[in-house]
Design a protein that fits this description.
The chain has 137 residues and is of the alpha/beta class. Helices cover 25% and strands 39% of the residues. The protein has a single domain, classed as 2,3-Dihydroxybiphenyl 1,2-Dioxygenase, domain 1 (Roll).
């Protein structure tokens, strides 16, 4: 029986640049940064949420064939892939803080049936929802 999800993956175009973006700009912490069998295992996550890690993965062999890796990288660069939803206690305040740090927003905070949401891109082109939910954590 599956009991929980503990890793998700976001494809990035440059792992060093992504590491800086996710830690220095978004405020996440590095969980691991090591090389295993030629594959760099770089994970980050929110300090307050220890049971989840985001793998910042560069699409390349052996994960993909070179042809498929190039396709995935092109989709990331084009901004076609969504990475998920980051929750915040105050969407408008976090929007202002991240905007001041140079984060590109596709949508300013707006009221939604489920709370307040803004959309932003990471440094590779992936888009994320930044959401303050009505029901809390």
């Amino acid at each position: 029986m599956i009991t929980k999800l503990n890793h998700v993956n976001v494809f990035v175009l440059d792992q060093d640049r992504a590491k800086r973006f996710y830690t220095e700009t978004l405020g996440l912490e590095v969980r691991s940064d090591t090389v295993l069998d030629g594959f760099r295992w770089l994970t980050v996550g929110p300090a307050e949420q220890r049971d989840i890690a985001i793998l910042l993965a560069y699409p390349a062999p052996p994960m993909f064939s070179e042809e498929d890796a190039a396709t995935v990288r092109a989709l990331v660069a084009k901004g076609s892939l969504g990475g998920g939803v980051f929750q915040t206690d105050d969407c408008r305040k976090t929007f202002e803080e991240l905007s001041a740090k140079g984060v590109t927003f596709l949508q300013e905070p707006a009221d939604r049936p489920y709370g307040i949401e803004a959309l932003f891109r990471d440094d590779s082109g992936n888009w994320f929802s930044l959401t303050q939910t009505k029901w809390g954590a």
